[in-house]
Amino acid sequence: MKASISVITLGVDDLDRAVTFYRDGLGLPTKGITGQEYPHGAVAFFELNKGLKLALWPRESLARETGLPVGKHSATECMLAHNVDSQAAVEEAMQQAAAAGALILKSPGFTFYGAYAGYFSDPDGHLWEVVYNPGFG
Question: Rounded to whole angstroms, how far apart are CA atoms 99 and 9?
Answer without folding.
Answer: 23
